[in-house]
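Hey, sorry to bother you again with one of my protein questions. There's a protein on my desk that I can't quite get my head around. No rush at all, and the record is pasted right below.
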Amino acid sequence: MTPKNFKYSNGEVTIVWQPELCIHSGRCVRGLPDVFKPKEKPWITPEGSTTEKIIKQVKRCPSRALSYFMN
């Protein structure tokens, strides 16, 4: 079975979220609350910050459930 992932883009960078890997540490939400909003749908809104800040925060994900690629 292929792992499920979700992609969210601001046009410059795409955030990839793999829920099966997520340990819900909350680092993403605390570090960049304008992008990561767990009470909203979609819960990731990359338009809320700069590409540089998004990349920096995604790299802090302890479970690697978040990753990114440049468009």
About this structure: The mean pLDDT is 95.
